[in-house]
Write a structure and sequence with these properties.
- This protein is an alpha/beta fold and 196 residues long.
- It has 4 helices and 10 strands, in the order βββββββαβαβααβ.
- The strands form 2 sheets. An 8-stranded mixed sheet has the order 3-4-2-1-5-8-10-9. A two-stranded antiparallel ribbon has the order 6-7.
- The radius of gyration is 17 Å and the shape is globular.
């Protein structure tokens, strides 16, 4: 069976960091390839569900996307509150197959990259992923129904985080130490497994 990957907020070209057989994308505007086929499905993930069926992907990625999804939002009538980021995490879990991977890379506090773009409305920290993982995720109190287990969660520089496979060895450790010393680790990586 062919493996499938979904890239959220992908722009015109969906990424495939886990090298799956088939790649799909979701962005606020649809994209067509040269033959007129849809390569990116349109959806505003702040208000819309991910437009795919349950358990239809082996992996989902979100590169520089989560920081654009509000944490709190008024309901359409203005008389209540929604939690779009919690809803999106529920949707990610819904479309992942059991054992599927969520790979997310986002600028994170205290790096200036977390704040410099005025469309960043969801500031991620090195601990945010803990709200969605473990036996009793803290996000349950806000309506989170998914289940994730942490494989890796770490600081990275953006260009290294685009690659799924982590670099290892003494040279990599020295390089990481040097980036940390310089304050160049601007992005936080989530590598989570959906354990529904």
């Amino acid at each position: 069976m062919a493996t499938r990957h979904l890239d959220l907020g992908c722009g015109s070209i969906p990424r495939n960091p886990l090298a799956r057989d088939k790649v799909f994308g979701v962005d606020i505007a649809p994209r067509l390839d040269s033959s007129g086929q849809t390569t990116v499905v349109a959806a505003n993930l702040v208000v819309d569900a991910i437009p795919f069926e349950d358990s239809s992907f082996d992996s989902v990625s979100a590169f520089d996307f989560f920081e654009h999804v509000p944490r709190v939002f008024p309901t359409a009538g203005g008389d209540g509150t929604r939690f779009p980021f919690i809803e999106l995490m529920n949707e990610v879990c819904r479309v992942l197959r059991p054992g599927g991977i969520l790979y997310a890379v986002t600028p994170a506090y205290p790096a200036p990259a977390a704040f410099q773009d005025p469309t960043h409305v969801n500031i991620i920290t090195a601990s945010t992923h803990q709200y969605f993982s473990g036996d009793k995720p803290l996000a349950r109190m806000y309506g989170f129904t998914g289940e994730f287990r942490v494989r890796r969660a770490h600081w990275a520089i953006h260009k290294d985080a685009i690659l799924y496979a982590p670099r290892s060895g003494i040279l990599s450790a020295l390089r990481q130490w040097n980036y940390r010393r310089k304050g160049a680790l601007t992005h936080f990586v989530w590598d989570l497994v959906c354990s529904k």
